[in-house]
Amino acid sequence: MADCTDSRCRICTANDEDGLIEHMAEQLWEGTRVLDLPAWAEAGEFWQEKYRDHAAIFIRASRA
């Protein structure tokens, strides 16, 4: 894993934090959902907000 001194680190160099959170939340959802669950776009606001929260927490922890 690249540390925050790596100029290519997407977490450290992101100009659009909301976009990064959205991207990470979608990737987390898609990477962990089982086949009978909907795709990210149809996951519903409750689950999307929970996964965005997880992504934001991960970003803060990674930057600490």
Describe this structure in words.
The protein has 64 residues and is mainly α. The protein has one domain. 61% of the residues lie in helices and 0% in strands. It is built from three helices and no strands. α2 crosses α3 (45-63). It is elongated. The two termini are 15 Å apart.
Task: Extract low-pLDDT stretches.
Answer: none
What's the total helix number? 3
Number of strands: 0
Number of domains: 1
Q: Measure the end-to-end span.
A: 15 Å
**Mean pLDDT over the full residue set:** 88
Rg, please?
Answer: 13 Å
Tell me what portion of residues adopts beta-strand conformation.
under 5%
* Biggest beta-sheet profile: none
- Give the proportion of residues in helices: 55-70%
Order of helices and strands: HHH
Overall, the morphology is: elongated
Which structural class do the helices and strands define? Answer: mainly alpha
Summed up, what is this model?
The protein contains 3 helices and no strands.
List keywords for this structure.
64 residues, mainly alpha, 61% helix
Question: Which helices and strands occur, and which strands form pairs?
Answer:
Blueprint: H1 10-13, H2 17-32, H3 45-63
Helix pairs in contact: 2-3
